[in-house]
Specification:
CATH superfamily of the largest domain: Type I PLP-dependent aspartate aminotransferase-like (Major domain)
Structural class: alpha/beta
Helix content: 25-40%
Oligomer: single chain
Number of helices: 11
CATH class of the largest domain: Alpha Beta
Number of domains: 2
Radius of gyration: 21 Å
CATH topology of the largest domain: Aspartate Aminotransferase, domain 2
CATH architecture of the largest domain: 3-Layer(aba) Sandwich
Number of strands: 13
Bound molecules: 4'-deoxy-4'-aminopyridoxal-5'-phosphate
Strand order of the largest sheet: 2-8-7-6-5-3-4
Order of helices and strands: HEHHEHEHEEHEEEHHHEEHEEEH
Length: 355
């Protein structure tokens, strides 16, 4: 491999190899997937497509999914863009709204894909240092030359930034695009989508991967002023404009339509989260106040790297980051009650051995 290609490959490897395994014996709490299956309506909608529809091209404008999303979040169809997972939507957004030569701002502790995309598209970036308690200092995002991107809730910290702070960032960046990545917003209080009508420079990116349990279908979307949506369509390409494949379109539309199932699984995951956090705290962990489907926790007496490896040996995968400042934290996805109980039992044993 010549130098150019080996550099390109090295630039783009955010996940550790071997941690995306599909072995059912493994308790997989490392990539924030939903532990429950998608709505039963998704299966029906996909089965219907399989009955003779696959020979047909999908709608190039994905009208029915865009309408359904627009209705769900309270905007109009021309304020919705669809992509192959929100990672693709984010990549298009970097290409459409951020420019080489103009530094963008994102938090020093955040989603690992941002620096990957910035390097890939040659966009310089400045890291905004998170506070000691991992909250984000809104004022340090003001006046960015190139634009702003931040997740809310942030990953991997799970912390939520109030809408008033997001609004202050929008007001103080009137000439650049501010992207709020809301991959985990359905587990939190309020979405920034309600600010879209007032701020033409706001792009909110969401996904069906977490709260709607469709990580395998790859459906992400962006919500913003029609001008921003048009810019994304221009990047995507002239034929597929808004669309994704037929199965993904049908499955995601069905998932949005089943509001009752969505509410039920979100409530269940939030209940499990509260109970899990409480027990972790009783065991001596410090846990950040999570508004996501994962928690970020550290234990004063035990190195997170040891716990991570010991859990892995027991067939339980959680996420550990070798990044200065968070090297002693574990990020743990919220699974089913049974999965969390199994993890808690293992942690209890491991902590007993050390004392
Ligand atoms: N943003 C954040 C903050 C994430 O954690 C993830 C998932 N790891 C994504 C975006 C991408 O999700 P997807 O491509 O599955 O929509």
């Amino acid at each position: 491999m010549n130098k150019f290609w080996s550099e390109m490959v090295n630039r783009t490897e955010p996940y550790l190899p071997g941690e995306q395994l599909n072995d059912p014996a493994i308790i997989k709490l490392n990539t924030n997937e939903n532990p429950y299956p998608p709505s039963p309506l998704v299966k029906e909608a996909i089965a219907e497509q399989l009955e003779g529809q696959l020979r047909l091209y999908p709608s190039p404008t994905a009208d029915s999914l865009r309408e359904t999303i627009a209705e769900t979040v309270g905007v109009s169809k021309d304020e919705v863009f669809i992509g192959n997972g929100s990672d693709e939507v984010l990549a298009f957004s970097f290409m459409a709204f951020f420019h080489p030569g103009k530094p963008i701002h994102f938090p020093s502790i955040t989603y690992s894909f941002y620096p990957v995309y910035a390097k890939l598209f040659n966009i310089p970036y400045e890291l905004v240092r998170v506070n000691e308690d991992f909250t984000l200092p809104a004022e340090l995002f003001f006046g960015s030359e190139g634009g702003v991107i931040l997740p809310n809730p942030n990953a991997p910290t799970s912390l939520y930034m109030e809408l008033s702070s997001i609004e202050s960032i929008l007001i103080n960046n009137p000439d650049t695009v501010v992207i709020i990545d809301e991959a985990y917003i359905d587990f939190a209080t309020v979405s920034a989508v309600e600010l879209v009508k007032s701020y033409e420079n706001l792009l909110v990116v969401q996904t069906t991967s977490k709260s709607r349990s469709l990580a395998g279908l790859r459906v992400g979307y962006a919500i913003g002023h029609p001008g921003l949506i048009k810019a994304l369509v221009r990047i995507k390409d002239s034929f597929n404009s808004y669309t994704i494949d037929r199965l993904a379109l049908a499955g995601a539309t069905a998932a949005f339509k089943d509001r009752a199932y969505f509410d039920k699984t979100i409530m269940k995951i939030k209940e499990t989260r509260s109970r899990f956090i409480e027990t972790l705290q009783e065991m001596g962990f410090h846990v950040l106040p999570s508004q996501a489907n994962f928690v970020f926790a550290t234990h004063a007496d035990r190195a997170a790297s040891d716990l991570y490896l010991q859990l892995k040996e027991e067939g339980i995968l959680v996420r550990h980051f070798n990044q200065p400042g968070i090297e002693n934290y574990l990020r743990i996805s919220i699974g089913t009650d049974e999965q969390m109980d199994c993890l808690l039992r293992k942690l209890e044993q491991l902590l007993m051995v050390s004392t």
